[in-house]
Amino acid sequence: MTEKTSLVPLDAPAPFPGSMPLRNDRHEKFAFKRALLMPKAEAYRSAGWAARDDHAAAGNASRLERRADVAERIAYLQRTGREANFRAKRHRLEEFLWNVHESRISDLWETVEVEKRDKKGNAVLDAEGKPIMVKRQVPRLLSELSEDAQRVIETCSVDGNGRVVPKLYSKMQANQELRKLLGIGILTADDDADDPSRLSDEALIARLAELSRMLGIDIDLSCNFGGGKLP
Fold first, then answer.
1. Which helix or strand (DSSP H or E) is residue 71 part of?
2. pTM above 0.90?
3. How do the domains of the chain map onto residue ranges?
4. pLDDT digits (tens, 9 = 90+) for 202-215
């Protein structure tokens, strides 16, 4: 009878705490989201669990995060894979900015019919004695808004009727931040060198002379600049 031998060396180092993916897929997703500093309630929901409200979701997430294996996994993911974490965080930031950029104010309001009233607050009646109805735009209840709509609200105020009036983040600011993030409209050193409008007079004449030689044609480059004449 032959004796079985292990394929793992006896002196092999033990896995670093948190280096192995968690067996529970939801726990692994939660750990990854928390390593990206996603809020607890949001990370809990995005991992696949449901909760009656944010308070309950945050409480469940806190209990989950106190598990030794989950805590070790979060700590490990935060220490390693910095480049991957940076890309994921950049993606989250870009996604938020696009949500603000493409948000619609109409998603926060609804049209309702109410009785028309005079300055004293009395209902205005028609010829038949029935209240005259008029349409009004009123803010939707925050609890009725979608998660995407709620995320693009910057502040809320309360009007004279006690209604909560939301205010969206600035679309213009989101546009500017997106342009910075994506490098749109930013001149690089190469762009600057290739822009004729940024060349000095002497450099522009030299470039035109070089082009004329390359094309094999004669160009009269005698021009006046600021009162002086360049040959």
1. helix 68-79
2. no
3. 25-101, 105-168, 187-230
4. 777 777 777 777 66
